[in-house]
Amino acid sequence: MVQPAAWDHPEPLAVSSAPVPAYGSGSLADLLPTLAAGLGVPGTTAALPELTPADRNCVFLVDGLGWEQIKAHPDEAPYLHSLLGTSRGGTGRPLTAGYPATTATSLASVGTGLPPGAHGLPGYTVRDPATGALMNQLRWQPWTRPDQWQPYPTVFELAHAAGVHAAQVSAPAFQNTPLTKVALSGGTFHGRLTGEDRMDVAAEQLAAGDRSLVYTYYAELDGAGHRYGVASDTWRGQLMYVDRLVQRLAEQLPPRSALYVTADHGMIDVPFDEDHRIDFDADWELSAGVALLGGEGRARHVYAVPGAQDDVLTCWREVLGEQFWVASRDEAIAAGWFGPHIDDRVYARLGDVVAAARDDVLLIASDREPKESAMVGNHGSMTPAEQFVPLLEVRS
């Protein structure tokens, strides 16, 4: 009689096999410090030496404009596609967004020049150690003091203090949000409703100083992807519009300018079936011993009830370990998922268990997160489709 193997379950994904973002050498957090260093701003370092300094620098961040998505749509984005070879100073390589690849985390990385483990916005929702409740860092709910949650100055503030003309051009609704305050404040804010107006004002602000650092932003591509998916006609129509916006801004650059087009993350579509969408709220194994479920479908922070951390980690590895990289908090920190250093105030914001999707799957929560669970397009993890973002360059 053949005896059953002692362990016939496939081995879970090794934590060390996750493709960690290129913090310090090729991540979103390295962009603004490099540009500011080229402008002579004290306290900044050029971590991307392939970028040639310019007197006037504009960063146009398109929410959800992943590197893989640009490559896959040459017909919808001919201008962007023509610039792929300019990415990262002509190397033709993308940046990595940082983990998790989500808007609040990435915008904080861009604006502060710090990785998530330092700036302290390490996910869509994370536990606030002071209250024990989940904090949504995109919507800033429940409200908490921004300067305590993220105490570091932004690169725009450092640039403004050094005499550089610093400006942000975005939707008026973003002017006074806590996320803008902690990530993008410094200099002047110019609210404009239409994309065309933002491009025109960004060009004007570039020309307003002999040394300039200007940021502008467009969100609707990401919204179309979440609602309809990156395979939809709606998303492709938004991409066509973004392509025209970038060309409009590029054609207005004043002398001695560099325009950099980048993004906060890419995106993937996830099918609506049980093989691809695992429902935490309907799974007694995954929910056992869990006090709070944070993060989002492809990048989860899991907070265990006291004393249950090891059991939750074991269970999550057994159930999800073939499709997710599942790590304890300390394992994720040691692997560098959130950057080379974790500030003390940030440590307990990270989950006792951290789970990052490798396959095209989601861990939804249909009862507690009905809107997020219904999204077609998703992001957050460390796969190329989510992590790789462009750094397309146009110079005048």
3D structure, described in words:
This protein has 396 residues and is α/β, with parallel strands linked by helices. It is built from 18 helices and 18 strands. The protein has a six-stranded mixed sheet with strand order 6-5-7-1-8-18, sandwiched between helices. A four-stranded antiparallel sheet has the order 11-12-14-13. Strands 2-17 form a two-stranded antiparallel ribbon. Strand 5, helix 9 and strand 6 form a beta-alpha-beta unit. Helix 5 runs parallel beside helix 9, helix 10 packs parallel to helix 12 and helix 11 runs antiparallel to helix 12. It is globular. The relative contact order is 0.20.
Structural class: alpha/beta
Task: Count all strands and give the number.
Answer: 18
Question: Any idea what the radius of gyration is?
Answer: 21 Å
| General form | globular
- Helical amount among residues, as a percent range? 25-40%
Largest sheet, in brief, is: 6 strands, mixed
Report low-confidence residues grouped into runs of 5 or more.
1-7
Strand order of the largest sheet: 6-5-7-1-8-18
Question: End-to-end distance, in Å?
Answer: 77 Å
Strand content: 15-25%
How many separate helices? 18
Averaged pLDDT, please?
96
